[in-house]
Amino acid sequence: MRACPAPAEDAEPRRRRRAPRPHPFGLRTRLVLAFLLVAAVGCGTTAALTYRAARDAILEQTQNTAVSAFRDQVDLLSVNLPVETETLRTALLNLARQGKPRPWRVYAEYGSLRVSSTDRPTSGVITPELRARALGRGATPHSSFQRVVKDGTPYLTIAVPAVFRTHATQGTAQPTGLVFFAVMELDEEEANIEAMVAAARDGALPALAVALIPALLAARSVLRPVRELRRAARSMGRGRLDTRIHAKGSDELADLARTFNESAAELERSVAELRRAEARARRFASDVSHELRTPLAGMLAVTEVLDEDADAGTLDSDTARAVRLISAETGRLAVLVEDLMEISRFDARAAELHTDEVDAADCVRKTLQNRHWTDPGRVVPHLAEGVRARLDPRRFDVVVANLVGNALRHGGTPVTVRVYAEGDTLVTEVADRGPGIHPDVLPHVFDRFYKADPARTRSAGSGLGLAITRENVRLHGGTVEAANQPGGGAVFTVRMPR
C-alpha cells in the first residue's frame, strides 16, 4: 500500500451528477389541473342532480295529469254489458280526443274482445305486467300506469278497469272485466330533458374556462413562496449564507419560510465560526512557520558543520551517529516548515504565478537532474520534444519533483515520467511499478497530512507534497488525478493548458 500525502476536496474523482429529469407536468400545471378537476366534478355533480330532479319533475307532472284525466274520463263513461263493438269503439274515439296533456291512443279489452281508437286492435307497448294489475290477477283490480321505452321512443301506458255499482252491495265497486288502456308518447318531455342536458353540457365548458382564472391565481399564490424558496436555496448554494425569505401569513408555506430562515441563520453562524477557526488555524501555522524559519536557518548551518566533522572522522562513532540523526531531523523539519509556509500562501490566496513560454521536456530534465534522478533503473523519462507551454517554471518543477519523489518513496521502480501534448493541453504522467493505491485511499491522496496506514506515525515527507502539487496545478488552471494502472502501480496525471 502506498502511504501518500494527501488530497484536497476536488481531488476525489468527479462524477457528473445526472440532472433530474423534469417532470412532464410541473407543479403549476398539476395545481391548475387539480383545481379544474374539482371544478369539473362539482359542475358534473350539480348538473347530474339538477338533471335528475328536473327529469323527475317533468315526467311526474305529465304522468299525473294524464293518469288523473284518463281515470276521470273512464269513470264518466257509460258502457252497457255485454259490450257492443261499435259502441265501444265510438266511446274509445271520444276518450282519445279528450286526452291530456295531449291526445291518447285508447284500447279496450274485454275477455277476448280487443277494440281501439286506432286501426290496430292492441298495442305492443302494453306489458303483461300492466294487464295483470288491471285485471286483478292475484289481487284486487286497480288503476295503474307504467313508463315503457320501445324502439327508442318513451311511452306512458295507463290501465283503468271499468267497474259497476249496485244498491245490493251498497255502492261497492265491482269489476266488470272490461279494461281501458291509454298510450301516450313522451317524446316532447324527452326532448325537453335532452335540451336540459345539452344546456348543462354547453354551460360546463364556459364554467371550466372561467374556473381557469381562479386556478391560475391560486397556483400563482401557492408557487410564489416556492419560487422564493428555490431562489433562496440556490443563493445559499452559491455561498450567500445571509439569504433570507420574507415570511408573511400563518399558513404552512409561511411556516416553511420561517423554518428556512432559522436554519439559514444557524448555518451562517456555524459557518462563520468554522471560518474564524480555520483562519485562526491558518494564521497560527503561518506564524509558527515564520517564527521557526530563522532558528532553523541557524540550526541548519550548525548541522552542516557537524556533518563535516562527522564525515572527517574527528568525532567518535556515537557522537557521529547522533550528529547525523540531528542533521536529518533538522532537514526534515526545514522541509516541513517550507511546505507549511507554501500551503499558507495558497490558503491566503497570496500565491502568484510567473509564467514564461518554456520547453516542457527541458523543464522535466532539469528537475530530474537537479534531484539526481538520472539513474535509468530508477527513473525512465519519455519526453516529447518540441512541446512548448506557458508555465511557471518554478511551480512546474515543484509539481514534477513532488510526483516523482512520491513515486520513488511509496511505489516501485522504475518510475516512468511522460510529457506530451493533447491539443492545447500539456499532459504530464508519473507512473510507478508498485502495488498501487488502495481504492479506499484514492479519494484522499491529495488531503493534507493524510496517511494510508493509520498505524504509521512518521513519513519521509512533510505530508503536504501532493496537496501543494494540486494547488500549483490549480494555479495553472489545470487538474491532477490519481489512479491505478491495469497492470499494477499508480499513475498521476497532470493536465494543464498550454
User: What class do helices, strands and sheet pairing give?
Assistant: alpha+beta
Query: Regarding CATH, which class of the largest domain?
Result: Alpha Beta
Helix count, DSSP H or I runs of 4 or more residues: 9
Low-confidence stretches: 1-17
Number of strands: 12
Largest sheet: 5 strands, antiparallel
Mean pLDDT: 80
Beta-strand residue percentage: 15-25%
Q: What is the subunit arrangement here?
A: single chain
GO molecular function: kinase activity
Cofactor: Mn(2+); Mg(2+)
Keywords: ATP-binding, Cell membrane, Hydrolase, Kinase, Magnesium, Manganese, Membrane, Nucleotide-binding, Phosphoprotein, Protein phosphatase, Stress response, Transferase, Transmembrane, Transmembrane helix, Two-component regulatory system, Virulence
Domain Histidine kinase: 287-498
Describe the structure.
The chain starts with 26 loop residues before the first helix and ends with a strand. A hairpin with a 7-residue loop joins strand 4 (153-165) and strand 5 (173-185). The chain has three domains: 28-193, PAS domain (Beta-Lactamase, 2-Layer Sandwich), CATH 3.30.450.20; 268-347, Signal transduction histidine kinase, dimerisation/phosphotransfer (DHp) domain (Helix Hairpins); 356-497, Histidine kinase-like ATPase, C-terminal domain (Heat Shock Protein 90, 2-Layer Sandwich). It has a five-stranded antiparallel β-sheet with strand order 2-1-5-4-3, with helices on both faces. Strands 7-9-10-12-11 form a five-stranded mixed β-sheet. It has a two-stranded antiparallel sheet with strand order 6-8. Helices cover 51% and strands 17% of the residues. It is of the alpha+beta class and 498 residues long. It contains nine helices and twelve strands. The longest helix has 61 residues, at 252-312. The protein has helices at residues 27-76, 85-97, 128-135, 187-237, 252-312, 317-347, 360-370, 393-410, 465-475, and strands spanning 105-110, 113-116, 144-150, 153-165, 173-185, 356-359, 379-383, 388-391, 415-422, 425-431, 479-484, 490-497. It is a multi-pass membrane protein. Keywords: ATP-binding, Cell membrane, Hydrolase, Kinase, Magnesium, Manganese, Membrane, Nucleotide-binding, Phosphoprotein, Protein phosphatase, Stress response, Transferase, Transmembrane, Transmembrane helix, Two-component regulatory system, Virulence. It catalyses: ATP + protein L-histidine = ADP + protein N-phospho-L-histidine.
